Amino acid sequence: MKLSPLSVPYKAVQKGASIVFTLAFVLFSGASAVLGGLGGPLVTVGLLGGIVVLLVAYEVLYYRRYEYELTADTFDIRSGVVSRRNREIPLRRIQNVDISRNVVQRVLGIAALNFETAGGSGTEAAIRYVTFEEAKRLQNEIARLKRGDAADAPEVESDELFALSDRELAIVGALSFDPRGLGILFFLLSGSIPVVSSFFSFGGETLVLALGGLVVLVAILFVSWLAGFVIAVVNYYGFRLSRTDDELLYERGLLQRYDGSIPFDKIQTLTIEDNPLKRRFGYATLAIETAGYAPGQGSERGSEAAVPLATRQRVVSLANDIEAFGTPTFTRPPKRIRRRYTARYLIILGVVTGALFAVVTALDATVPWYGTLAVLPVIPVAAHYKWKHRGYWLGENHVVTRNGFWKRQTKVVPYYRIQTVIDSRTIFQRRWRVATVTVDTAGSLSLAAQDAAAVDIEAADAERVRAELEDRLVSAVADRRSRRRRSRRPLVGPVEPGGDDSPPNEGSDPTDDTTPDERSDAREDSNPSGA
Description:
Elements: H1 7-27, H2 31-37, H3 41-65, E1 67-70, E2 74-79, E3 85-90, E4 94-102, H4 103-108, E5 110-117, E6 125-131, H5 132-147, E7 159-163, H6 166-174, H7 180-189, H8 194-197, H9 206-236, E8 240-243, E9 247-252, E10 256-263, E11 267-274, H10 276-281, E12 283-290, E13 305-311, H11 312-322, H12 337-363, H13 378-388, E14 391-394, E15 398-403, E16 408-414, E17 420-424, H14 427-432, E18 434-440, E19 452-458, H15 459-486, H16 520-524
Antiparallel strand pairs: 1-2, 2-3, 4-5, 4-10, 5-6, 7-8, 8-9, 9-10, 11-12, 11-16, 12-13, 14-15, 15-16, 17-18, 18-19
C-alpha cells in the first residue's frame, strides 16, 4: 500500500517553510553582505528555487519508495530514499494505533498514524500521511486481527461512556492553571516587549513597590489561568470516550484532532487527579497510564486523560468500572510528620527571607524584606493539609496511594502490574523513623518518577508493606496467568480449530499470551526484582 499523493505537496510545504524561515534569518544577518557581493537578489531567488526543486524531488522519491503492508501477524514498512529500511512490527506488540489530524490535514482529508508498542519510550513507527478513511481502516483492521476475529466478523460496537459538553469544556478551562504562565509573564517583564514592561516600572517608594508586587502577583495568577484555559480548550474540544469489550476509544482536540485507543489489557495505573478548585466544586480528572508509553502522548501529557473533567463521583465510578478497587480507606503518615513538614517550610522561608535581605542590603534598597514573614501563621496549616492528603491502602487486588494538596493524585495499581517495590529512606526520613515505599510499574509516568508511593510511613510499616506487596504480586500474577491459560486464545490471526487447547510449543516464550510487563521468570520467583 502507498501513502496519499497529497502527502508530497503537504510535506514539501511543511519542510520548505522552516527552511525558508532559516534562510531569511541568514540573509538578514551578516551573511547577507557576502551573498550581496555574489549577485544579490538573483542569488536569493536561485537559492530558493533550488531548495523547492530539491524538496519536491525528495518527497516524490520518498513517496514512490514508501510501502506498507498489513499481514495476519505483522505490520510491515519499507521506506528510505538514500538507505532502505525494512521493519516488521508484530501485531501482538502494538499497543495503540493513534490517528492525529491538524486543521490543514482535516481540510486535505489526510491523517498521520502513530504505532506505539508496549515497553517503548516513543512512537515505534509513524506513517505520514494517508487518507483519513485508510487510517481508520488500518486502526480497525489491526484491532480485529489482535482480537482474532474472522474477516467477515461484524464490526465491533462501542458504547459511549463520556462526552464533554460545551459547558463542561468551559469548566475544564476555568479550573485549569498552567505554570508556564509564570514564564510568559517573566518574558513580558524582562524588557523584551518595552511597551508591556513599561507598565510594570515602579519607583523606589515602599508603597509603590508593595502595590507593584501585588500587581505582579495578580498578573502571574491571571496569565497562568489564561494559559491553562486556552491549553485545556484546545486539547479537549469535542472530547468523547467510548468502550468496546477490550479497549477504550477516545477523540479530542481542536487544532490537532486525536483519535486513538487505550487497550484494557495494557492499563498499568489509574490516576484520579484534582486541585483545590476542583475539590471545592466536586470535580476530578481521570488519567490512564499504559505500558511504557502513553496513548497518543508524543510530547504532550494531555492525551493520557481518559476523562478531562467530571463530577468526582462519576470519575470514581468510571475508574471502578475499569479496575474494581472499591472504596479505599487510607492510612496516613504518623501525626508527628506534620512537625517535619512544618520544619521544612520554615527552612525554605528562612532561606528566602535571608536571600531577600542580602539583596536589599547589597542594593541599599528600601524593600520590606521582612514581609515574607507574614506567611508564618500559614505554615502549620499547610503542613497539616500536606499530611492530611497523603496515605495508602492495600485492597484485595489493588494498592491505592494518595499524595499532594495543590495537585492531589490518587493512584490505583493492580498487584499484577507491579514491576518493582522500592523501600527508600533519606537521611532526614531515618531521623524521623519513616520511609517511602514506591510501587514501580511500566506506566508512562514511571519515567518521570511519578509512581504510586506511600510516603513518610512508619519504618516498621514500610517493611511490612513491601513484603506484603511482593507476596501479593507473585500470587496475583500466578492467578492471572492461570486464568488466561484456561481461556487462552490467539492474540493475532483467526482462531484455528483446537487452537485454544493446544499447549505452547516447546521452547517458546511463555509470556506470549501476557502483557510485556508480566515477565514469568521474575514473577514465579518468590523474590521479585527490587525485593
